[in-house]
TrEMBL record:
Domain FecR protein: 126-216
UniProt lineage: Bacteria, Pseudomonadati, Pseudomonadota, Alphaproteobacteria, Sphingomonadales
Keyword Lipoprotein set for record: no
MF (Gene Ontology): sigma factor antagonist activity
Residues covered by region (Disordered): 1-21
Protein name: Iron transport regulator
Domain FecR N-terminal: 27-68
Keywords from the UniProt entry: Plasmid
Matches recorded under Pfam families: DUF4880 (PF16220), FecR (PF04773)
Length: 333
């Protein structure tokens, strides 16, 4: 199915056909509303819709306008007053808009939640859900605070203690044992400690680390420069888009402040800030616009109220948040 148009299956409803090459974007968006409602169990259709939505800012704008009009018409309800003529496809879509918006949320979930969730169920020892922070005590006595939407697996063996950060972020207070080092694997990155308190966040580029007490040795993927680094209390490590490991300074009492439901951001991209908000939001946040990965921001954001955090971004940094449904937020520049 092409990304730039409505579904190629022309049988939309009765004898109605929608041909993408001959209709404008508002009709395409309306066609998607109808098609999603007609085939609520079609996972492939939902993923194709997301492809269409993300393939062009014009598609996103058309979808936003169509859902806005649909919601307004639904809220108005039936009336005997004379109305402006509305195309049958849009009128039909309006009657179903509430269900369709729910299907949209499900569609967004498919790519980001279902498949990874099944894998984690098979491999993780401990997990957290959206907005949930948990304290876990490991077999060796070490304490782990799991951030929302995170997962770990732990093996306590004779030769060492090995923990895999499968997803998300965690704060560790490691029980000291000089004979058995504590190793953490976060993707292609590895962190080794004896006894210390620090945080690790798994990222697409490697791992972000902040040390509150003691010291850690970090081994990074070979394509990162440098590929290993030692950190002591009050130091942090982040990996930038250019593949560089950057040493920074952090107040020890600000390591893993997400445990208090806040994020303190210092010169990070808007996309990175949204990545920090996502695990706290009971829905799906879609980011559109390459500029959001480039623009740098600083500030304090309330993770426990993610919609307020997104609103703070819009006020301070000229970005737009579209409420595509009660469970879907689209952030665009």
């Amino acid at each position: 199915m092409p990304l730039g148009g409505a579904p190629q299956d022309k049988a939309m409803s009765g004898n109605e056909e929608v041909e993408p090459e001959r209709v404008d974007l508002s009709r395409q968006a309306t066609a998607w509303l109808v098609k999603l409602d007609d085939h609520p169990e079609d996972d492939g259709l939902r993923l194709s819709f997301i492809d269409w939505l993300n393939s062009s800012p014009a598609h996103l704008a058309a979808w936003e306008e169509t859902t806005r009009v649909s919601l307004l018409m639904t809220a108005a309800g039936p009336s005997r007053k004379k109305r402006t003529w509305i195309p049958p496809s849009l009128a039909r879509a309006t009657l179903r808009s509430r269900n369709t918006l729910a299907f949209t949320a499900i569609a967004l979930a498919l790519g980001w939640a279902i498949a990874p969730g099944l894998w984690l169920q098979l491999h993780a020892d401990e997990t957290t859900g959206t907005g949930q922070v948990r304290l876990v005590t490991l077999e060796d006595g070490s304490k782990v605070h799991l951030a929302p939407d995170s997962a770990i697996a732990f093996v306590n063996g004779a030769n060492g203690r090995n923990l895999s950060l499968l997803r998300g972020e965690a704060w560790f207070d490691v029980a000291r044992d000089t004979a058995r080092p504590f190793r953490i694997e976060a993707g292609a990155s590895s962190i080794t400690v004896l006894g210390t308190a620090f945080s690790v966040r798994k990222t697409q580029r490697g791992a972000d680390v902040g040390v509150a007490r003691g010291k850690v040795a970090v081994i990074l993927p070979e394509d990162i420069t440098p590929d290993r680094m030692f950190l002591t209390a009050g130091q942090s490590l982040t990996t930038d888009a250019a593949g560089r490991a950057v040493r920074g300074a952090i107040r020890p009492d600000r390591v893993a402040v997400w445990r208090e439901g806040i994020a303190i951001v210092d010169d990070q991209s808007i996309a990175d800030v949204i990545d920090r908000i996502r695990p706290w939001y009971k829905g799906y946040i879609v980011v559109r616009g390459a500029a959001l990965a480039e623009r740098r921001v600083s500030g304090i954001y309330d993770l426990s109220h993610p919609d307020q955090a997104l609103e703070a971004l819009t006020r301070a940094h000229d970005v737009r948040v579209i409420n595509a449904s009660p469970w879907v937020r689209i952030v665009t520049d």
